Structure to design on (141 residues):
């Protein structure tokens, strides 16, 4: 067989991957692990007041990503960061916690919309991912 085949992945997969986290606590832990992998010294977590629609906010002072890194690395589902960048973080030489390349979807376990704001080398990049759009995008195709 000489032809090359490529997988086509529906956006709905992101919503299914967010369901891999059994609890909100586990999903928030995954987001904190992402901060660890970004060499953050500090992580701030703001939980909503009971019975409100206030957001869950996880903020850190890690290295951040450029727009190019968001497009070429963060948005790649199941990307093995360790295969490309090694087992240790670049600055603090910590053992990388990310293993499966799906931790980015943890935010969709605790919220209907995930907003990523990142700043690297003086430039801010914002990405908004509504869970409903991921689920309905597959139906539109």
């Amino acid at each position: 067989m000489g032809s090359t085949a490529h997988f086509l992945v529906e956006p709905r997969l992101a919503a299914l991957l967010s369901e891999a986290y059994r609890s909100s606590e586990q999903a928030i832990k995954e987001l904190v692990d992402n901060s660890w992998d970004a060499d953050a010294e500090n992580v701030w977590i703001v939980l909503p007041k009971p019975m409100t629609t206030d957001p869950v906010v996880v903020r850190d002072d890690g290295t951040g990503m450029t727009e190019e890194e968001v497009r070429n690395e963060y948005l790649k589902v199941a990307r093995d960061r360790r295969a490309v960048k090694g087992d240790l973080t670049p600055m603090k030489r910590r053992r990388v916690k990310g293993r499966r390349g799906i931790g980015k979807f943890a935010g969709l376990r605790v919220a209907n919309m995930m907003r990523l704001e990142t700043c690297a080398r003086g430039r801010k990049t914002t990405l908004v991912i509504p869970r409903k759009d991921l689920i309905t995008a597959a139906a539109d195709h």
